[in-house]
Amino acid sequence: MAGEITETGELYSPYVGLVYMFNLIVGTGALTMPKAFATAGWLVSLVLLVFLGLMSFVTTTFVVEAMAAANAQLHWKRMETRKEEEDEGSSTASDSDVLTQESYEQAEKLPILSVQRRAPPNLFEITDRVEMGQMASMFFNKVGVNLFYFCIIIYLYGDLAIYAAAVPFSLMQVTCSISGNDSCGVEADTKYNDTDLCWGSLRRVDAYRIYLAVFTLLLGPFTFFDVQKTKYLQILTSLMRWIAFAIMIVLALVRIGKGQGEGHPPLADFSGVRNLFGVCVYSFMCQHSLPSLVTPISSKRCLTRLVFLDYMLILAFYGLLSFTAIFCFRGDSLMDMYTLNFARCDVVGLAAVRFFLGLFPVFTISTNFPIIAVTLRNNWKTLFHREGGTYPWVVDRVVFPTITLVPPVLVAFCTHDLESLVGITGAYAGTGIQYVIPAFLVYLCRKDTQLAFGYGTINKHRSPFRHTFWVGFVLLWAFSCFFFVTANIVLSETKL
Predict the structure, then answer these.
(1) Which residues fall in a compositionally biased region of kind Polar residues (predicted)?
(2) What count of other Cβ atoms lies within 10 Å of the Cβ of residue 244?
(3) Per residue in 140-174, pLDDT tens?
(4) At what angle do helices 273-283 and 468-494 cross, to 10 degrees?
């Protein structure tokens, strides 16, 4: 659950951690990026991608610093507890020796020297897996904690809506064509509408909704139980993902090399920046899962350099995938899910490869949907939980799973516009998780550390962007993005 301190898990090397972080960041968002690139223009897309990658790296270092500060608090409390047990018989204790949770709220009213403590150098070692919800409860006030959970919940709802739409959409594209069943899938220069026929008198939109119903009936029940991602399932889905990405990049390069590239993307088209921004933010999302990834790394001496290397590799991969796509295919022929562009006979001659790429999102996304759903359900429980209280069976086993499952399925029923779903999720909830929450976390944890341990204390995992300017810059950028995206949506809808 997001609000708990969970087990660290089995330790692994820094390079394994690099691979895990790479796999976490490069997910569904990468499949919607090529169309967003083609819509916004290659130069604008490249500049925005690099800048948003830098901003995501900055806030990732913020979260790591906050994790270290949270660990320092936990370590100190354990040391104080052991000391109290050893000195249980003594009658007095100095204010500078103990800082309990109750007295902590009054610390700002006391002289600084009365609450400063000499912190051992290893106090900031990241050994406890402290999830973001727990960090929020340590550093935020009650309003801040509630806003944190609200942001996480909205983001997870968006995630589930994207997943619920992507699977039936892929199945519809692979199994339907304008003339009925067609083993070659999407033909060149063919544009489909939802009202076009799929099988007999059944429309494409009807087929999509049938697939959505089947998807919900098969995977929805997992929301009512506890599920965990197994190691072997993770290995299998990662292997399939990289085989699919490698095939798409190689096929696109081969077509371009043969002079068959159809794409002539514009230099810049600012009307497409809104969706591109949301897609890029969504595609760099990892901050909410950093505790799970960073804590088990055995050696954290070069953690910042490791994260920087990961971001450079991810930027290179996104650039390679998107640029080969926009120069291989015409912008108006790029699909919301890039894998579906390879369901054409003129692109891929081997039927097995066409179906593998076309159905690739079905396999990988279906394995993630139950995990995301259970995470969202648990966050709802944490948000409404009161200390010492328990939920009735009906509320715990029926109400929370239902409010988790129904809204994203309804959204997917109404639309399968994956680019917009990813764009809106990334632009709003994604901006909150990736920019706003890490900025406030690092600012408040720095104040907390100075108050608790003194102004000379150095967090060994502090961000390279340690000046307060960077916190302000990230917040200013985040609120500017909120304003820009909202204004763009309003102007687009009203066609002013």
Answers:
(1) 90-99
(2) 22
(3) 998 999 899 989 999 889 889 988 998 898 888 88
(4) 140
